[in-house]
Structure formats: C-alpha cells, structure tokens
Design brief:
Number of strands: 0
Number of domains: 2
Helix content: over 70%
Order of helices and strands: HHHHHH
Length: about 160
C-alpha cells in the first residue's frame, strides 16, 4: 500500500468518525455551550472587535473544513448505496440494464424516466380503480403487466441473463 492510499484510508475513517461525532446531540450541546461562553465573556472584552472576530473566524474555519469532511462521507455512502442498487438490478431478471448507469444520465433523461414512472403509477392506479387484479393485490403479475412495468432495454437484453 502506498502513502497516498494510506492517507486516503485514514482520511476516510477520520471523516466518517467526525461526521458521526459532530452530527450528535453532545456536539450540538457543546457548540451551544461555546456560544454561550463566548457571549458571557463579551463584557470582559468590552464587546470588542477582537472578541467578535474570534467567534466569526472560528465558526467560519470550522464550517469550511466540515464541508469537505461531510462531503467525503456523503460521497462514499452514496457510492455504496449506488453499488448495492446496481447489484440488485444486475440479479433481477426483469430489471432494465440502462438503469445501472442512470446516475450518469442527463437531466433530460432523468426527467423522461420520471415521467415514464409517473405514467406507470397512473396506469397501475387506474387498473386498481377499474377492478382488475394487479401484482400488489394478487401477488402475481400477468405477462402484460410485467411488460408494462419493466420493458426490455433498447438492445433487448436483461441484466444478469
């Protein structure tokens, strides 16, 4: 393992630990206590510019650093979730392959998928109102319902086949 890899692993661990620790109730209580202590020291320092600069600089620097720490943790958690979903898509016979790469899709492609699922949901609720059996009521989808719910990808292949 090289030095860069070792530093990355250490940073990731530290970022996760800091994110958990600073997102806790004790951390919030400590921050409130710090601000209260700062306010109470105001008269000692005659509410000077230096006194004000202390809290402004401290909170700005901490916030600046925490943006990177929290973003690092969020990126890794998001990637892990995405990989888990990709694995589920891969193993399901009726899943569409193109959904694996959807996180790299354009805004237009995402909007088109959102509209498609809106129509599928509307169709399913209309079928419920009309009294026809749906997969959620019977536990079994007809072949037509399966095609509507998950058509084949553009190349006709299924993930995991």
């Amino acid at each position: 393992m090289d030095v860069k890899e070792d530093l990355t692993i250490r940073f990731d661990r530290a970022a996760d630990g800091l994110t958990r620790a600073l997102g806790s109730l004790p951390a919030l209580a400590a921050s409130v206590a710090l601000v209260v202590a700062w306010v109470l020291t105001g008269p000692m320092f005659n509410f000077s510019n230096t006194w004000q600069l202390f809290i402004n600089t401290t909170t700005t620097v901490i916030t600046f650093w925490m943006v990177f720490v929290i973003q690092s943790s969020a990126n890794r958690q998001s990637k892990a979730t995405q990989l888990k979903l990709d694995e589920l898509i891969r193993v399901l016979a009726d899943a569409r392959n193109e959904f694996v790469a959807l996180d790299h899709a354009t805004e237009q492609e995402l909007s088109a998928r959102e509209e498609e699922f809106g129509q599928l949901a509307e169709h399913a609720s209309t079928a419920d109102i009309g009294g026809s059996a749906t997969p959620s009521r019977t536990g079994h989808a007809t072949s037509t319902q399966r095609r509507i719910a998950s058509p084949a990808s553009s190349d006709g292949r299924r993930r995991g086949s």
